[in-house]
């Protein structure tokens, strides 16, 4: 059984569904480290060899891979010799339908911006992908691996997504073995009505990390006693629902919570406490 990284409940109206998380994808790469040429000790940042208890010059350090007590040295020239063209050129090799891409494969996201001299060609690519409903697939060698890349148009620009490789997508038997459940027409009708009652436009400006905000305030309150500590969050208890129809009907009758945009971004604790003291002065 795969390792559970979180357990809790998924709330849909008054339906509380017990759920847990498994890792869906995991980064796989060979990590090279730096070692002291003289004693082969691992170098700690900044360029300090704990085995010899001394700071090192760049000429005293090499990169390598440690396995079974042996350190294999890898030179910069050897790295350069095995780095493919994608280390310098992001070459598009395929164009696929955006609707065919499983979002499970999307990893990190970046803005891909053009230099001035390439503005027109960049705009042509954006327009072409937009008009055809396609995204571009390419490769990029960076940070110790050859990455699969997806480029998708957004507005007048391109968003770059790193893609997980198939070998990095976890196989979770519990997920693959899930079976369809038997549902009545009445249950489906009420569930659809509940989903429609929660219908909204996607607006990420309304998303906020409340835990981050409260943690910053808590730290600031400990630095400066004049800052009020955050109010404790009420404990939440959730029980699996036995009567779906009753829970769905009650959910439809319950007012729906809505997120509101908060324009104030919490300052870092030290700045928050310093600003408070400044106002007091």
What is the fold's blueprint, element by element?
Elements: E1 6-12, E2 15-21, E3 33-36, E4 48-49, E5 54-55, E6 61-67, E7 70-74, H1 76-82, E8 92-97, E9 106-112, H2 119-132, E10 134-142, E11 145-154, E12 157-163, H3 173-176, H4 185-197, H5 210-223, H6 244-253, H7 269-280
Antiparallel strand pairs: 1-2, 3-6, 4-5, 6-7, 8-10, 9-12, 10-11, 11-12
Helix pairs in contact: 4-6, 5-7
Polypeptide structure, described:
26% of the residues lie in helices and 26% in strands. It is an alpha+beta fold. The chain has 3 domains: 33-82, no CATH class; 85-168, Ku70, Chain: A, Domain 2, CATH 2.40.290; 185-192 and 201-280, no CATH class. The strands form 4 sheets. Strands 8-10-11-12-9 form a 5-stranded antiparallel beta sheet. A hairpin with a 2-residue loop joins strand 1 (6-12) and strand 2. The longest helix has 14 residues, at 119-132. The model is unreliable at 9-13 and 260-265 (pLDDT under 50).
Uncertain stretches of 5 or more adjacent residues: 9-13, 260-265
Beta strand count: 12
Mean pLDDT score? 77
- Morphology: extended
End-to-end separation in angstroms reads 59 Å
Structural category is: alpha+beta
Number of helices: 7
């Amino acid at each position: 059984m795969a390792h559970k990284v979180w357990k809790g409940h998924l709330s849909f109206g008054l339906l509380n569904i017990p759920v847990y998380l498994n890792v869906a994808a995991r980064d796989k790469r060979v990590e090279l480290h730096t070692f002291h040429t003289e004693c082969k000790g691992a170098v700690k940042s900044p360029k300090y060899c704990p085995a010899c208890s001394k700071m090192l010059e760049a000429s005293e350090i090499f990169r390598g891979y440690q396995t079974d007590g042996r350190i294999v040295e890898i030179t910069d020239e050897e790295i350069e010799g095995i780095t493919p063209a994608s280390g310098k050129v992001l070459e598009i090799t395929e164009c696929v339908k955006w609707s065919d891409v499983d979002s499970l494969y999307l990893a990190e996201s970046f803005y891909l911006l053009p230099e001035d001299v390439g503005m027109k060609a960049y705009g042509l690519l954006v327009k072409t992908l937009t008009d055809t409903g396609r995204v571009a697939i390419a490769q990029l060698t960076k940070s110790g691996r050859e990455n699969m890349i997806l480029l998708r148009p957004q507005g007048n620009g391109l968003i770059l997504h790193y893609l997980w490789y198939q070998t990095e997508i976890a196989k979770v038997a519990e997920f693959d073995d899930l079976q369809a459940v038997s549902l009545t027409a009445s249950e489906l009708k009420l569930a659809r009505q509940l989903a429609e009652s929660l219908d909204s436009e996607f607006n990420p400006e309304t998303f906020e990390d409340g835990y981050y905000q409260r943690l910053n305030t808590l730290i600031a309150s400990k630095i400066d006693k004049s800052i009020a500590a955050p109010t404790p969050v009420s404990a939440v208890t959730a029980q699996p629902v036995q009567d779906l129809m009753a829970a769905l009907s009650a959910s439809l009758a319950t007012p729906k919570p809505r997120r509101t945009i908060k324009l104030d971004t919490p300052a870092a604790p030290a700045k928050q406490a310093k600003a408070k003291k400044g106002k007091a002065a």
